[in-house]
């Protein structure tokens, strides 16, 4: 049995794969502690996992403004000493970081304490934390075809994003019944990622009547702090009642994506992995201010694989026409679903679990070779 510290806080895109990995490790007899931030999104999501152990660590994200930069440096130093104390008290066998501002303190603390470190990057453009810390890691997991110049090729593994076990495709009828959606009306889901997306929320509110007129029911996850839960009733051209649901947060993503005919979404790697797992076609609107423009790269890859289409936020006036054309084309939706199914063949979680076990428990011959080489 091995023990792992998993850094995964700050956004749902980091936290979700961390939870998936922790559950996978537990199923194989290992122990894990998940290091999360003190942000609301972390607190809300981890409520669903009382069987896992979480530690909320100090730390804030990087910023160039002098005051914010000073605050970041101070909080990261506090987080580093927090991690050193945790390592010395719990004595883990390995460290896993999923990027973001919670990764640097634990990776550096792990190196100081002589522990093997693994990092996972799920975006097509690696983030600052992974690019900076990758040279200190024994393993760096990257999307297929992506490399980081500073990372030794021997340390690189090409692995997708581990998806939580409850994110799985179920029958559309069962999913709609569970969510209180009409079984015979088309369903459009709008997602802005764990933080929400004001531009997509505003678009959805502006399209209520047009979508309802076509008999399309709407389900919008607005993001915490971006609106209250409510349901709006409208009427279609045929006189049928059509509902639009607005919720601040959803912890039922497997059912929600299974219920949808089509999703309009940002292009974070976590969301794309869940779309692929649930075989749900999407129109992606990349967040234009995303670090290193990584969402545009993610969306372009998704589109090239024939899983949906991408639209720039500056062209959001095109979105209604694209939604209307795509959601009414059952043939094209089925073609997209087939392509999504093809992308989900590799089991990223299983690959990571086996490799982490090898990293923390190397074969005797390999360990002896490393000792001699040193």
Written account of the structure:
With 374 residues, the protein is an alpha/beta fold. It has two domains: 160 residues, Rossmann fold; 172 residues, 3-Layer(aba) Sandwich (Rossmann fold), CATH 3.40.50.2000. The chain has 15 helices and 14 strands. Strands 3-2-1-4-5-6-7 form a seven-stranded parallel beta sheet, with helices on both faces. Strand 1, helix 1 and strand 2 form a beta-alpha-beta unit. The protein is globular, with a radius of gyration of 22 Å.
By CATH reckoning, the class of the largest domain would read Alpha Beta
**Beta-strand content estimate:** 15-25%
Q: The biggest beta sheet, please?
A: 7 strands, parallel
Please name the CATH topology of the largest domain: Rossmann fold
Shape: globular
Number of DSSP helices?
A: 15
Radius of gyration over C-alpha positions, nearest whole angstrom: 22 Å
Helix and strand sequence: EHEHEHEHEHEEHEHHEEEHEHEHEHHHH
Low-confidence stretches: 365-374
Fourth-tier CATH superfamily name of the largest domain: Glycogen Phosphorylase B
Tally of distinct domains: 2
Architecture (CATH level 2) name of the largest domain: 3-Layer(aba) Sandwich
